[in-house]
Design brief:
The structure holds 3 protein chains of 3 kinds. The radius of gyration of chain A is 24 Å and the shape is globular. In chain A, strand 4 and strand 5 form a beta hairpin. By secondary structure, chain A is mainly alpha-helical. Chain A starts with a helix and ends with a helix. The longest helix of chain A has 17 residues. Chain A contains 18 helices and 7 strands. Chain A folds into 3 domains: about 170 residues, no CATH class; about 110 residues, Orthogonal Bundle (Cytochrome Bc1 Complex, Chain D, domain 2); about 140 residues, Cytochrome Bc1 Complex, Chain D, domain 2 (Orthogonal Bundle). In chain B, helix 9 packs across helix 10, helix 12 packs parallel to helix 16 and helix 15 packs across helix 16. Chain B is globular. Chain C is of the alpha+beta class. Chain C has 5 helices and 5 strands. In chain C, helix 2 packs across helix 5. The relative contact order of chain C is 0.16. The chains are: A mainly alpha, B alpha+beta, C alpha+beta. Chains in contact: A-B, A-C, B-C. At the B-C interface, helix 5, helix 7 and helix 15 of B face helix 1, helix 2, helix 3, helix 4 and helix 5 of C.
């Protein structure tokens, strides 16, 4: 979805950028290829872990494509950007890049040819990564399989397609400094700060952005957007009815799931897949830092909240509840909310706490973040597209209802779910948000 | 009812029968008499049912009905048996009605299992059809005054060389009720076959692609009621209470059934049964006990008491092992996972019970249900109707037992029990966990000098042969105990099936440890122990070949004495392009061979696998296979079975493991027990059928399971230089092995 | 009473609005094509076409189907007059137990209706929601390609038995 106001803002930056063109970086001249270098195995292993923390492979791999070979489309308010091929291929990848080239890209957002990279590549976070760690990443990347794959051309609107705009953007928004630990904090806190602000780049999705597409410094982790999904505010800023604490956040990040909050879906799913492969201490560090920045509340699980949420689901299914078994099925289709009838028929098979038979039970809807979020974006996405784990891997399967339900029916059931399962104000933009999602769907 | 139940088939059947067999008749018919014969053995199952008219009947209009005790499981046996009879009788397959497994109408051929249908039933039917043909020719000879040598059977007539003819119907009018089969029949020369050996269009497919009646799930007799079960949530669960009264008052509920911990509901309409089942389950309170293995499963199994069975023990002192290898191969539990959960209908009326079931063994099921209900066996009638693919002993018999119990609770109404997905997943008997510990050595010339194998496994068959193996019977107020299982003797074997390598090895010791105690419910899963044992043997042979510096295919040929085995190995290797294979980055090739049970079908499989280094994901890119099942009755049917076996085994091998906690099975649906989807399917599978006209039928259905598993493991070893030995070979395990 | 349009015919069905279409088809209308495989939208054995799109009838309540066009396999053709796709499945002998096949055919039909010449990758991706446990996938893909191209593949010629 192109954001026209943002485009106008960029036009002003373009003018500023033109003035800064004289300061453009120059290309480097080293010609040594990846094959000519050897790397220490321990350094490569360290780079592998750092790469998992930074989600390099997630972005730099296309759908069905080879690892790190790029080609993944990233929708932004300025158009679509394609991730680049960062395999060591000499022609189409970064096989000719020196260690210094790589450092400059990570710390300043400038490629080997001297061109500015788009901050969809979050160099504004990677700039905080130490030289040693960047070198380890370099060792890891340069020992991956070289894949010949040309990156598709970006499809950006004017003037976002002009790289000089980025010079101005960097001037305004890039704080190109390596991370410095805070001596007043623990080692674990500092590690967490280093990861979160650097490689893990949580704020890139979870912090709201200004009109120029830069993170708003005053609202860290206050909620943002990524690739058509809403990235909710974290911890104390979360709309979830059960408060987040360190334990819940750890479980969620490590396992992709927390029984009191729900499932990692959308762009967050591959992030938690990667976090499952790094040492637990790293995830604890991330949690420690985040909970200090955004606050956490009680430490006890909210039993009453959970029981109440389950009861809402139980009640929502009406005459399924055995204590109502004796009531005649008096309520007819006309007196019932259309959304309620759809929910009972389409959703209750799985989203019903009371069935008693051994089942895969989703987290009660009343507890999930998507049902309580300020925007219906995520709830709609899941209803329309469903959830599909990677082939051969266990994981929640939810069928998409985009074909079975009409537009009006999806609106009805999603509005019903919000009204029935959340204490927050009703959404007023379900219809419009759904139109936005439908416009993206392949025909 | 057992005729091909496509609409077309049924019309033809009803039109032809003189006496119309009403589908849901009330009085059970007499079972088919079984007798023993003296003297030379009769071919196949004729030994158990030697009267010709138990197998082949000719109607007054010349129409032929063939009876088999075997069942169509989707493996195409209906089409193959029809073809055999048609060939020997000289009529078109469309002129035959085949009646399958029915305790009132067909011979008792035990279970449709073990890939024995062609060997047992095919051999019998071919012989019986030939003998009926000769009998009719003799009668025609007398009638026409023409020597039998001048007569032949064609298109339902016996025809003389001078053109005169008499119809089968006339010749068969007086019947041949007391005629016993002879050991030798004048079988047609395979070189003259016009039906057998050609690929046949399956007679059941047209109905299946057009929404015809094809499965037990499609039966809708008048007055039928629907039922759902509330299964116990764990093996040792006992029902404390359930609000039967409230559920009985729900709309559409006819009856709530409770007998001890057996619990279910019967309704007029199907969705009402599901609603009521959910309500009933929600009110049910169970006492449960943890009983499932925890910690290291294989250590736990090996600690249980076991019966030692020595299956091979010979030592050639001259053999000198130089380089010694050891490896242990393991697999947890895997499920049948039939795509259509089990279903059965039952009707209890006038102290007699009729059950329509997709059980693999209607006769043993009848005996078991009779025992459970305290009825004489003659008052129980079990009829096989197709279900979805079962791949062994799944929950079909349990669904039938529940149907019988509920039918008794609402007499004179047909009751249809349909299991839910979660019930099939959690209650079905799985393929048992197995351990195969191998060691061996190669001599100075690289040959295998010595081979030792030790295997551990539960029983691979807890089929109903009594009420004690019907799951609902365990939960009745007066329960039946599950009997202590006994090992299946070799040469067939259970957990030791295919544990003896077929290779020429001077010193060989093979021991099986049969573990009777079953912490998790287990029984026969397609190929039984052969899947793990062939996986182990064929992985180990590759490891030995590697130690000997030899090509894996050449190494096998070197040690195979059987010419047919070598032919299959060479055919698969050639089809695959083993010589001159060029390895793309991240790709590898693997080969494996086995003769099922060391006495049945020969099958070799070669695969190319691509490994995604960063994720550990393995994908079978292509496969080539060769199969020798003896005389190939329906080559396309053989190909279908091997293609399917390769894909199913690929799914088992890369993805599948039943999960559980201390008390319950947690693989409850496809999200918690993923299987292969279209994204995992290879680009190509080529199957070469080696036809051996005149050779005995060797079966096909289970031949590809073991070789595919080992071929994949060998290809992963080739691609990633890592040897994995614990099934399934998941991404996580592969990634952990290949590292960064 | 809810009125449903199935294969171009109107049916008045006496069932609650939350009843999934699958049970109305099988129980009320005595149709066999759509099958119960899981009831959870995970396997596709129940697949039918609604307004041109493949849907899981096991999780589609009839309350949402008023005025919408439902197509089942019975509406494609009969054994005597199979549709091109059904014909292709018969010609390729694309079934083992066959339980998943009606769902596969409806899923494939929806693809071919929208895209008459899909690539192999498109076919595989489109068919992903449907499971087959027997491993008939190769033949299913061949049958779909055959119907799309309307030319015979290199399959071994079959000796058909006249029915």
């Amino acid at each position: 979805m192109i954001d026209l106001r943002a485009v106008r803002c960029l036009s002003m930056l373009a003018l500023a950028g033109a003035a800064l063109l004289g300061c453009a970086e120059s290309p480097t001249t080293t010609a040594q290829t990846a094959a000519e270098r050897t790397f220490d195995r321990a350094q490569v292993a360290k780079g592998a872990e750092l790469s998992a923390l930074g989600d390099c492979r997630v972005c730099h791999t296309g759908d069905g494509g080879r690892a790190f070979a790029g080609g993944r489309p990233l929708p932004t308010p300025f158009g679509t950007i394609y991730s680049t091929n960062i395999t060591p291929d000499a022609e189409t990848g970064i096989g000719r890049w020196s260690r210094d080239d790589f450092r400059r890209a990570m710390h300043e957002g400038i490629d080997r040819a001297g061109r500015h990279l788009y901050p969809a590549f979050p160099y504004d976070h990677f700039t905080h990564v130490t030289d040693d760690d960047v070198d380890a990443l370099y060792a890891f990347i340069m020992t991956r399989e070289a894949v010949s794959a040309r990156t598709p051309r970006n499809r950006l609107v004017f003037p976002a397609n002009l790289r000089p705009v980025l010079a101005a953007w960097n001037w305004l928004y890039l704080d190109a400094r390596r991370f410095t630990p805070d001596p007043a904090q623990s080692a674990e806190w500092n590690r967490g700060a280093y990861l979160v602000e650097g490689l893990a780049h949580c704020g890139a999705c979870h912090t709201p952005r200004n009109i120029a597409g830069a993170e708003k410094r005053g609202q860290p982790f206050g909620g943002g957007d990524a690739e058509g999904w809403h990235a909710p505010g974290l911890l104390a800023a979360s709309p979830a009815p059960v408060e987040w604490n360190a334990d819940a956040l750890f479980r969620y990040l490590r396992n992709g799931f927390d029984a009191e909050h729900g499932l990692a879906a959308g762009p967050m799913a591959p992030v938690v897949d990667e976090l499952a492969t790094v040492p637990e201490a790293e995830v604890h560090a991330i949690v420690t830092y985040l909970t200090s920045r955004t606050g956490q509340t009680r430490n006890a699980p909210a039993n009453e909240r959970i029981a109440a949420a389950e009861q809402r689901e139980f009640d929502a299914v009406g005459r399924h509840a055995p204590d109502r078994a004796s009531e005649a099925s008096a309520s007819s289709a006309e007196t019932q909310d259309a959304g309620e009838v759809i929910f009972a028929g389409a959703c209750a098979t799985c989203h019903y706490a009371g069935a008693g038979t051994p089942r895969t039970t989703p987290v009660p809807l009343a507890l999930t973040t998507s049902v309580n979020a300020p925007t219906p974006q995520n709830a709609l996405r899941v209803v329309v597209e469903g959830l599909h784990p990677a082939s051969g891997e266990p994981g929640a399967i939810m069928p998409g209802f985009g074909s079975a339900l009409t537009h009006a029916q999806i609106v009805a059931v999603v509005e019903y779910v919000r009204a029935r399962f959340s204490d927050r104000p009703r959404w007023t933009d379900v219809n419009a948000t759904l139109h936005g999602i439908e416009r993206e769907q392949p025909k | 009812m057992n005729a091909s139940i496509s609409d077309v088939g049924r019309r033809a059947f009803l039109a032809r029968s003189g006496a119309l067999v009403v589908a849901f008749s009330l009085a059970p018919l007499q079972g088919v008499a079984q007798e023993k014969t003296g003297g030379a053995k009769l071919p196949g199952s004729l030994e158990k049912a030697p009267l010709l008219d138990a197998w082949i009947r000719v109607g007054a209009d010349g129409g032929v009905t063939v009876f088999t005790g075997k069942a169509e499981l989707g493996q195409g046996v209906r089409t193959a048996l029809t073809a055999l009879a048609a060939e020997e009788l000289g009529i078109a397959p469309a002129g035959i009605v085949l009646v399958t497994a029915d305790t009132s109408r067909t011979p008792d051929e035990g279970y449709t299992a073990g890939s024995n249908s062609m060997k047992d039933s095919g051999t019998a039917i071919r012989s019986a059809a030939a003998q009926v043909r000769e009998l009719l020719i003799e009668r025609a000879s007398a009638k026409l005054g023409v020597a039998a040598e001048r007569l032949h059977a064609k298109d339902g007539n016996v025809v003389a060389d001078d053109g005169r003819r008499v119809g089968f119907g006339d010749l068969a009018a007086q019947g041949y009720a007391e005629v016993r089969a002879k050991p030798d029949a004048k079988l047609k020369d395979p070189r003259s076959y016009s039906v057998v050996g050609k690929s046949l269009a399956r007679v059941d497919i047209p109905a299946k692609v057009t929404g015809g009646v094809a499965y037990v799930q499609d039966l809708r007799p008048p007055g039928m009621l629907h039922a759902r079960v509330v299964c116990p949530p764990s093996y040792r669960a006992r029902l404390r209470d359930a609000d039967v009264g409230a559920v009985a008052r729900m709309p559409g509920v006819v009856k709530v059934v409770r007998d001890g911990s057996v619990l279910g509901v019967v309704t007029a309409h199907e969705f009402d049964a599901i609603r009521a089942m959910r309500a009933l389950a929600a009110t049910a309170r169970w006492d449960e006990q943890p009983s499932l293995p925890h910690g290291d499963l294989f250590a736990a199994l090996q600690a249980l008491p076991a019966q030692e069975i020595v299956n091979a023990d010979r030592h050639d002192g001259a053999a000198q092992g130089m380089r010694r290898l050891e490896a242990t191969y393991t697999r947890g539990y895997q499920m049948h996972g039939s795509i259509g959960p089990s279903c059965a209908l039952a009707l209890y009326q006038d102290d007699a019970l009729t059950v329509w079931t997709h059980s693999q063994g209607v006769y043993p099921l009848r005996a078991s249900i009779a025992e459970m209900l305290h009825l004489p066996a003659e008052r129980v009638h079990c009829i096989h109707v197709e279900g979805s693919g079962c791949y062994g002993h799944n929950a079909a018999d349990d669904a039938a037992a529940y149907a019988a119990l509920f039918a008794r609770a609402v007499p004179a109404h047909p009751v249809r029990v349909q299991w839910m997905r979660e019930q099939e997943h959690t209650c079905e008997p799985y393929g048992p966990a197995m351990i195969a510990k191998l060691s061996g050595s190669v001599d100075a010339s690289g040959g295998i000098a010595e081979w030792n194998a030790e295997g551990w496994s539960n029983s691979h068959s807890t089929r109903p042969g009594g009420a004690g193996n019907l799951m609902p019977a365990w939960y009745l107020a007066t329960p039946f105990a599950q009997p202590v299982p006994k090992p299946i003797p070799m040469p067939e074997g259970g957990g030791d099936r295919n544990s003896i390598p077929i290779y020429t090895v001077p010193s060989l010791r093979v021991v099986h440890r049969f573990i009777p105690a079953m912490p998790i419910r287990v029984s026969a899963l397609r190929s039984l122990g052969a899947y793990v044992n062939v996986f182990a043997i064929e992985s180990f042979v590759d490891e030995l070949a590697h130690a000997a510096g030899s090509d894996p295919v050449a190494y096998r040929i070197r040690h195979l004495g059987d010419r047919r085995a070598r032919d299959v190995v060479n055919a698969a290797a050639t089809r695959f392009g083993w010589e001159g294979f060029t390895r793309k980055p991240g790709h590898g090739r693997g080969f494996a061979f086995a003769r099922y049970k060391n006495l049945a079908a020969y099958c070799a499989v070669a695969v190319e696998v691509s490994l995604e280094h960063e994720t550990g994901r393995a994908r079978v890119v292509r496969a080539a296979a060769a199969i020798d099942s003896g005389q190939a009755v329906d080559p396309d049917g053989l190909r279908n079975q091997i293609e399917g076996g390769i894909i199913q085994s690929m799914s088992w091998t890369l993805f599948e493991a039943v999960s559980y906690d201390a008390t319950r099975i947690t693989s409850v649906d496809w999200s918690t027990y993923p299987i292969a989807r279209f994204a995992d399917i290879p680009d190509r599978i080529d199957v070469e059928v080696i036809d051996r006209p005149g050779e005995p039928f060797l079966g096909t259905g289970e031949a590809a399971q073991g070789p595919t598993a080992a071929a994949i493991a060998n290809a992963i070893a080739d691609a990633g230089k890592v040897r994995l030995r614990d099934l399934p070979l998941t991404r996580a395990k592969i990634k952990a092995a290949i590292g960064v | 009473m809810i009125e449903l349009d199935v294969n171009g015919r109107r049916h008045a069905v006496d069932a609650e609005g939350d009843t999934p279409l699958l049970y109305v088809l099988r129980d009320h209308l005595a149709m066999n094509g759509a099958k119960f495989g899981c009831g959870l939208g995970q396997c596709g054995a129940c697949t039918v076409i609604v307004d041109g799109k493949a849907v899981f009838s096991c999780v589609t309540p009839i309350s949402v189907l008023g005025g919408r066009a439902i197509r089942t396999i019975e509406g494609l053709g009969t054994p005597d007059r199979p549709s091109p796709l059904q014909r292709a499945f018969i010609d390729e002998q694309a079934a083992q137990c066959g339980y998943c096949i009606a769902g596969m055919i409806m899923r494939a039909q929806a693809l071919l209706d929208a895209n008459p010449s899909p690539s192999d990758a498109e076919i595989r991706r489109h068919m992903a929601p449907n499971l087959c446990r027997c491993g008939t996938h190769m033949r299913i893909l061949r049958a779909i390609r055959r119907a799309a191209q309307r030319v015979p593949t290199a399959a071994t010629p079959l000796r058909s038995t006249p029915t």
